[in-house]
Amino acid sequence: LFGEVIGAQLNTHPQYLWVCREGVVHIWDQTAEGFLTRHAREPEQMPHGLVELLRGTLREHWRAIRADSERLARAVGLDELRVDWLLCDPKWGP
Known about the structure:
Blueprint: E1 7-8, E2 17-20, E3 25-27, H1 35-39, H2 50-75
Antiparallel strand pairs: 1-2, 2-3
């Protein structure tokens, strides 16, 4: 597991979804028992169309994002590294 991507989230809505290692988006059940207890406040609604945009971006770029993130962690000899990607940013992101 060291130096390998385990998943991803949206920094703006971490309580809403999880991207698994394969790049598949999992939407958390906002009505699940204990959900609000864990997150301490009502989660913000996702902007309309954001999940579809994310899925499309991941279909096109996830392999490269994952590979680059893993390469970076291994190159500097770290077992764990947080890498932030600016998705859909015309200058900084895929």
